[in-house]
Design goal:
It is built from eleven helices and 16 strands. It is of the alpha/beta class and about 375 residues long. It folds into two domains: about 140 residues, Cytidine Deaminase, domain 2 (3-Layer(aba) Sandwich); about 220 residues, 3-Layer(aba) Sandwich (Dihydrofolate Reductase, subunit A). About 45% of the residues are buried. The protein binds ligand AOF and zinc ion. The site of ligand AOF has 17 residues, from helix 2.
Length: about 375
């Protein structure tokens, strides 16, 4: 039974990719509409948060052939809920006279979870569930995590030498990896809701942290700095463009006049508790971001920040761009700093999910185990 639907679900999954850069914090969703005779009528995707959902996009292109037809969709169709931006898909499916809906996975959003399936069945629509379920869940790993925990999914991005250094003694890091690696790193920015760095990175690199590839229809990107005592300079590159997209987390007792100055520039300052080591409590940071529609965060260093996320079990994925260089040096910046773990048994365990060559560099992607 499911064998018949699997290729169509894969087609819907492919269509869902259209939302990779624009759908967030909504999930990526794809849908295929089949006529009563089983022919593919149209394909739709949820391309942009606030735009039409995948099912609605597919129906809009072939409503006249939808009667008695089938919708194959990667995620359970949505039902009415108070905070929604668009009309519910279940209503559109019923209005179109579709008689069967094939679903990849249920929507973990508590406003939906199972209600879409129930609403369709009680209206007499046949519902087939669980086709290519694993792939449909994997597609929206970040959304699933955010909806379930209220905290964003965290990816650490590191550009390092083969001996694991982010910068040479003295702090110089431009450029370790190839242009292709850097471009791929910029593309990662376009598919995350926020970028995060530590104050040391701001002070050493003076980064702009902007999106400039134009892949995401929304040029605005929340840029986050962990800055316990508000040392973020107000004449740096970070505040040159869209300072109102910048959020700086600090500790209680940070200088009031610095706070006023940054707020005057439009920066949001959020005070959080300390983590016991005079650093910002990352759980509070992530909770704040999660409640402000940030479903995914790309952490771009430095080494101390990477350590904090890994040590606290708050990083989910690590992506390393490894250049064929050796910097060496006891004082060079390690990709992960902090005091380190005392033994390999206590180390953070990863699982490699991809290894690639990219213009002379290696790209290593790993998932953190047990988070
Ligand atoms: C679907 N098809 O293509 C998507 C769904 O604010 P709204 O109206 O865009 O609704 C957002 C919620 O709808 C989102 O949190 C998720 O539960 C669901 N996403 N559902 O039937 C789609 N993107
Ligand atoms: Zn919907």
């Amino acid at each position: 039974m499911s064998a018949r639907w699997a290729p169509l679900m894969r087609q819907a999954l492919e269509a869902a990719e259209g939302g990779r850069y624009g759908a967030s914090p909504n999930p990526m969703v794809g849908a295929v509409l089949l006529s009563r005779e089983g022919e593919v009528v149209s394909v739709g995707a949820h391309l942009r948060c606030g735009g039409p959902h995948a099912e609605v996009a597919a129906l809009a292109q072939g409503a006249e052939r939808a009667v008695g037809g089938t919708v194959v969709v990667t995620l359970e169709p949505c039902v009415p809920s108070p905070n929604k931006r668009t009309p519910p898909c279940v209503d559109a499916i019923l209005a179109a006279g579709v008689s069967c809906v094939v679903i990849g996975t249920r929507d973990p959003n508590p406003a939906m979870n199972g209600r879409g399936v129930e609403a369709l069945r009680s209206a007499g629509v046949e519902v087939i569930e669980g086709v290519e379920e694993e792939a449909c869940r994997a597609l929206n790993r970040r959304f699933f995590h955010w909806i379930a925990t209220g905290r964003p999914y965290v990816t650490l991005k590191m550009a390092m030498t083969m001996d694991g250094k982010l910068a040479a003694r003295g702090g110089r890091s431009r450029w370790i990896t190839s242009e292709a690696s850097r471009r791929e790193g910029y593309a990662m920015r376009e598919e995350h809701d926020a970028l995060l760095v530590g104050i040391n990175t701001v002070l050493t690199d003076d980064p702009r942290l902007v999106r400039h590839l134009g892949l995401n229809p929304d040029p605005h990107l929340t840029r986050v700095v962990l800055d316990t005592s508000l040392r973020t300079p107000d004449n740096g590159a970070l505040l040159e463009t869209d300072p109102e997209d910048v959020v700086v987390f600090c500790l209680e007792g940070a200088p009031v006049e610095r706070r006023r100055e940054l707020e005057r520039r439009g920066v949001t300052i959020v005070e959080v508790g300390d983590d016991g080591r005079d650093r910002c409590d990352l759980r509070q940071v992530l909770r704040w971001l999660g409640t402000h529609e940030v479903s995914s965060v790309l952490v771009e260093g430095g080494g101390e920040v990477h350590w904090s996320f890994l040590k606290e079990g708050l990083a989910h994925r690590v992506q390393a761009f490894v250049a064929p260089l050796v910097l060496g040096g006891r004082e060079a910046t390690p990709s992960v700093g902090g005091p380190g773990f005392p033994s390999p048994q206590e180390a953070v365990k990863l699982r490699f999910v991809e290894v690639r060559c990219l213009e002379g560099d290696l790209v290593l992607s790993a998932e953190v185990e047990g988070v």
